[in-house]
Write a structure and sequence with these properties.
With 296 residues, the chain is an alpha/beta fold. The chain contains eight helices and 15 strands. The termini are close together. Bound molecules: ribose-5-phosphate (R5P).
Amino acid sequence: MTDRLVFAGPASGEFANSLAKRLSLPIVSVDVKEFSDTETKFRVDENVSGASILVVQSTYPPVDKNYMQLFLAAHHLSQEGAKVHAVIPYMGYARQDKQFLRGEVVSLGVISHLLRSTGVSRVTTVDIHSAEGLALFPMPIYSVSAIPALVQYIKRNQKLSSPVVISPDFGSSKRTEAFATLYGAVHLRFSKERDRITGQVKVEAGALDVKDRDVIIVDDIVSTGATIRAAAEKLRKAEAGRIVAACIHPLLIENAYERVMEAGVDELIGTNTVPSKVSKVDATEPLASYLRTLTE
Ligand code: R5P
C-alpha cells in the first residue's frame, strides 16, 4: 500500500494533528513562512513521491487566504508526485452553489475546478451546506456528517427534558430531521426568507406549541447569527423552556455569539471544523471513521 501522510494546513493545525493521531498517520514536516504582505510560502523538504497525502485545511475566514494556502500546498505536493486528497472540514463558498439571482457566479464550481487544476484528486468535507453542491465537483467528493457527534455531545452534556428539535429554515430540515431521529425527539420546521440584496432574515414559525418545552435549534452554519437569533426570538415569545442552538460550523462573524445569546439562547454549541469558543464537538472522529474505509 502507498504511504499515507497528513499535511496540516495552517488553518487546521490542531485538527489535522488530532486526525493524524486517530488514523495513526505521520505528519509531513513543512516550513511555513508568512511575508509581511500576507503571502504564504511553504517549503516541504521531504520526499513525498508516490505517497497519498491528506491535505487538511479548513476554509473559514479569511476564506480566500485559506483556500490559496490549500491550492499552494496541493499543487506542490502533486507536482512532487504525491496523490492529493483535500480534507476541507468547513468548505467556504459552499453556500454559493447555484444562481439565486441572474448573473451571480456559482463560486463553488470555480473552487472545485481550482482544486482539480492544483492536483487534488479527491475531496472530503464535513456537512457541506447542501448536497447539491457535490455535483459541481469533477473528482470524487464525500461529505461526512458530524450530526451524530453533535447529538451524542448534547445528550451527554445538556439536561433537556423531551426537547423539540427546530429547523430554522427549509434548507436545514433534512439535517435537522436526522438530528431529531437520532435524538429521539420531535421535529418542527420554521420557514425563513433572506433578502438576497440586503441579507436581512425573516423567520416564520406559525402557531407554536412549545410553552415550557426545551428546544434545540439545529443549523449547519452560524455566521452572522441572524438565523438563530430570529428563530430564538420566536421561541422566546412562545415561552419555550431552555434553548440550545447547535451547529456544525460556528463561523461566528464579529459579534454573532453575543447576538445569539441576547436573543435568549442559553447555550450555543458547534464542532471544531471552525475553531471558536463554542467548538466543543470533535469532528475528527466521524472524519477518521470515513477515511479509514478508503484504501488510499
Ligand atoms: C443558510 O441557508 C444556512 O443554512 C444558515 O442558516 C446560514 O448560513 C446562517 O447564517 P447567519 O448566521 O448569517 O444567519
